[in-house]
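Hi there,

I know you've been waiting on this one. I reran it after we fixed the sequence typo, so this is the corrected version. Both the input and the resulting structure follow.
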Amino acid sequence: VQALARETGTAFVWVTHDLGVVAGLADRVAVMYMGRIVETGPTRELLERPAHPYTAGLIAPIPARNERGRPLAQLPGGPPARDAAITGCAFRERCARADGACRALPPLAGGTRQVRCFHPLAGVAP
């Protein structure tokens, strides 16, 4: 797939929750939550230092990143109902870093590495 993309100058879009697979396929990644991009950037950088809490939550249960025999980490709670009217950060009810600012929608901010979060974990200034 990567060779075909290079030969033809074509981009491929993969939609998956398996960031382990993405690591071997993509040069850049965009992570979405409830239909909005919450983080985007070069694959290796994003996987090594996630800035959005949701991205970190997707990476945490990758078996290769965990000690053998320990339970895999899971994101707390669940996503909002599909028909829910979402205002502000859609991830705020599941996020340990959320505060009153998260009632507003954070902008997607940064340069080659962007995050939509008022309280990013690392690597990207809000």
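Quick highlight: The chain is about 20% helix and 15% strand.

Best,
R. S.
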